[in-house]
Amino acid sequence: MKLTTYLKYVIKIGAFGLVQLTGNAFAETQLLVGQAVIPPTASSVTVTFSTPPDSAIPPADAVIFESTPIVVGSSDGRQQSLGLLLPDDAADIRISNITTTGFTASYQRKRNTLFGTVTEVTAPTVPITFHYIAVTPGRSELPGGMVVEAGKLTNQAFNNPANITFESPYNTIPAVFTGFQSFNNPTDWLVANTLNVATQSASFVMTNRSASAAANSEDIGYIAFSSGATKFVASDGLATGIQALPNQAGISGPTGSYPTDCNEVQLDTDYLTVVGDASSVTSPVTIGNQATANQAGGTVRRCTSSSNDKASFYIDSEAISGNRTTVNELTSVLALNRPFYASFGLVADYQLDQCRINLANASILDSGPYTLNGVGNGLTRETVTGLPAPAPLCGAAGLSLNPSSPSGVAVSDDPLFDIQGTISMAAWFNFSGTQTETGFPELQTLAGKGTDSFRLAIEKVCTIDSGGTRVIDEASTRGTGINLCDVAGGTGLASSEIHHVIRFEVTNQASGLATFIRSTQIGTNQANLFFDPRGVVTAGSWQHVRATFDGFSFKLTVDDNPIAETLGTSAIPLNTNNEPFSLGLSYSGTTTSALYDGLLDEVTLWENALSMERLNTLHRQRTRLCQSCGREIIYWREVYKR
């Protein structure tokens, strides 16, 4: 390890002209919640991953996972298949043949011996509905800070508990859900139980009540959710609520006739009805999983009596061998307001320190997973010597890009930029403070997608004294023709002051109206926003901005000042358009506006409403490798490895 002081070359953006258009650092988490049915007399069904039919745009579209997901689920009702002969023996759904596009769900029932005759049961006589969740392996943060981790234990032998340690400890005991990922023992009644769940670890075991050993090993998948609830707008454009409840007590085996022997778990309707959204649920999607194994060989089954404020389950186990009991089990419960698809991950990462630049096209490289490269024009490489010291540039210094107008970077339109749900943006910027803004509101765009989707910008605002409190007003002439900041023109107030602030805005897909937050904003009343001077942009110095939107609420901060926040109650799916994603200006067809004049660095876009803590860690303290430099770069630290 060697300590060194170095320079970085960033993109300088001037504010004039027209840009020409052209054609992993962080893991992506994809999450799909769905339901399927095994029809009568069928032994299995092939499930293809797709968005739910009520998705905004597009409906019932195919979903392809970037890596083979972990799939777990719960089936409905008491699965009878032998009528009067053996009406109540246990059955379950087994998942296998998982690929990036789907899986196989098979019907499994205990292999019974009756009067010396082995009875194979391979198909139900009634439709069997099951709910499932598929998650990308690994650990990630969902909107609202909910942490999910998914993984797999391979080749687990019968009755042989295996321990796993979570990638990082949870703050409290998580809700853990397990399920077979293989079906190597089709004639044996087997269950995958969870044991000894703690904040750092859990145990899993493949077992049954009769204790007869399975012939083959199986793969067991697990998905762990941090305890709590969150709501957000998913990638399909609809409001989504999730609640994870660990260690729910009192779930037991049958005590009478189904469904009177079911056990109810109270749910939080604030999340599952998703206030203000037309897709509010009357019967949630629910998945249950034992967290204890007091009666080995049991499996949690959904009761069809679930409502919008309760989930109903029971423990199904074998009856033919006299093994059905009423022993209580602790059970993890996952409740979701609807089937949905969501993708949480890095969309684009413009580090603006690539080793080589094609001078003819002024290529701006995306270091994210999708190589969404752009083209810059009228840009200048500027040497930065002040703090904070960014990562070193690979290759030659002082390259001069086309200095003539225009200024900015355009990245060709791509479906990956058509974000309808959650979003986070972050950047370093050094605002010149010399550019004259025009239009209403008066903006200089740091990054965004057109003028009617999402963008992060610097806004010129006016503050005035109102009732003894300083509040924010627009700096431009308003619809009334009165400009409260135009003191010289006679319409302004003597107490008025001009400031530049960060503005993060999104456009509502349904109404076409922009909703926004400012970095100096305290309070949620758009007409009378209290002013916090700690969020003011300072010209001529480097500052860091973080912004998130979960489909309901905004969070925004400049440097490490207190977070500006607005709390929404109605879902706002983001509008999509055909404009390029751009740095330093905004597009509306062939028209450019809101040109930024200053330095810009490390512009990053996520399809996720990350917590401010996670966003700060990912963007300000990440480690990345510069291949052609042959060294590891620790971002914002004067340290590297040769």
What does it look like?
2% of the residues lie in helices and 43% in strands. The chain has 642 residues and is an all-beta fold. The radius of gyration is 28 Å and the shape is elongated. The model is unreliable at 1-9, 15-26, 80-87, 275-279, 355-360, 384-404, 477-481 and 623-642 (pLDDT under 50).
Name the structural class: mainly beta
Radius of gyration: 28 Å
Q: Report the mean per-residue pLDDT as an integer.
A: 76
Number of strands: 47
End-to-end Cα distance: 8 Å
- Tell me about the largest β-sheet: 11 strands, antiparallel
Which ranges are low-confidence, i.e. pLDDT below 50, for 5 or more consecutive residues? 1-9, 15-26, 80-87, 275-279, 355-360, 384-404, 477-481, 623-642
Tell me what portion of residues adopts beta-strand conformation: 35-45%
The shape, in one word, is elongated
Portion in helices: under 10%
| Helical stretch tally | 2
What tags apply to this protein structure?
43% strand, mainly beta, 47 strands, 642 residues, elongated
What is the gist of this entry?
The chain has 642 residues and is mainly β.
Q: How do the strands and helices of this protein lay out in sequence?
A:
Blueprint (H helix, E strand, L loop, with lengths): L1 E2 L4 E6 L15 E10 L5 E5 L21 E6 L15 E6 L5 E8 L2 E3 L2 E3 L8 E8 L2 E4 L5 E10 L5 E4 L9 E6 L10 E5 L5 E7 L10 E8 L2 E6 L5 E13 L11 E4 L2 H4 L12 E6 L8 E4 L7 E7 L12 E8 L3 E11 L12 E2 L9 E4 L1 E6 L23 E4 L11 E9 L11 E7 L4 E13 L2 E6 L22 E11 L6 E5 L2 E2 L7 E2 L10 E8 L4 E5 L5 E3 L14 E3 L2 E3 L2 E3 L4 E10 L4 H9 L2 E4 L4 E4 L4 E3 L1
Antiparallel strand pairs: 1-47, 2-28, 2-44, 3-10, 3-25, 4-7, 5-10, 6-7, 8-9, 11-12, 12-17, 13-16, 14-17, 15-16, 18-19, 19-24, 20-23, 21-24, 22-23, 25-44, 26-27, 27-29, 29-41, 30-38, 30-44, 31-32, 31-41, 32-33, 32-34, 34-35, 36-37, 38-39, 39-40, 42-43, 45-46, 46-47
